[in-house]
Amino acid sequence: MIWQFSNHGVLAMDMLHPSGEMSIRLMILAMLAGPLSEFFGLNRFFRAWLAIRRNLGVAAFGYAILHLAFYFLDMPDVAAIWDELSIAGIWTGWLALILMIPPASISFDNAMRKLGRKWKLIQRLVYAAFIVSLAHWLLLDWDWWPAFIHLTPLMIAWSLRWLRPRRKASLSRSL
Q1: Band (165; pLDDT cuts 50, 70, 90)
Q2: What secondary structure does DSSP assign to 75-94, as a single string?
Q3: DSSP state, 67?
Q4: To 10 degrees, what angle do helices 144-174 and 12-40 make?
Q5: For the packed helices 125-141 and 88-105, what is the interaxial angle rounded to 10 degrees?
Q6: How far is the CA of 174 from the CAs of 29, 41, 164, 170, in angstroms?
Q7: Strand, helix or coil at 10?
Q8: pLDDT tens, position by position, 97-151
């Protein structure tokens, strides 16, 4: 995206949607690994996916920062950015980014060891960031269908997570 922007005369505003969408897609990929591996069981594919889940989350944050950079380049000055903060579609983007900062800043092994169980609690901010990111997308784009299509795999995976315990309980009762 940076190469396309710098070498092909693409406007910063033309890169806002692709960079934001890529951030959301990477967040979805990071969040899908857990529920799907729980439901289908660990195999080589899911172990590899779980091994790169943190990288996907950090990449999602990187694309969110790139999205912010394109936003800054698109705006004429700081006053214009400040004026837009009252727009729900804009402040939700800022809130999503703020929510992504703590998980991204502790996404390394040493932080995981030092924080212990608190690490997982901080990482769960990603779920809130994802929901706020979707709100940001919907409030700015008003085209609900693409956002719904992006959300559907995650809704299915989360549904499978809730079905799994019931299935185990019903199996143990039938035995």
Answers
A1: low
A2: SSSHHHHHHHTTSHHHHHHH
A3: H
A4: 10
A5: 150
A6: 35, 22, 16, 6
A7: coil
A8: 999 998 898 888 888 888 888 888 888 889 899 999 988 988 988 788 888 888 8
Query: What single DSSP character describes residue 115?
Result: H
**pTM: predicted TM-score of the whole model, two decimal places:** 0.82
Amino acid in position 38: E
Question: How far, in Å, CA of 162 to CA of 139, rounded?
Answer: 29
Distances (CA, A) of 105 to 54, 83, 112: 11, 29, 11
Count Cβ neighbours within 10 Å for each residue of 74-93 and write b for 16 or more, e otherwise: ebeeeeeeeeeeeeeebebb
Rounded to an integer, what is the distance from CA 87 to the centroid of its chain? Answer: 22
Place of tokens 């698109």: 74
Cα distance between residue 59 and residue 30, in whole Å:
10
- Ramachandran class of 36: left when φ > 0, alpha when ψ lies in -120 to 50, beta otherwise: alpha
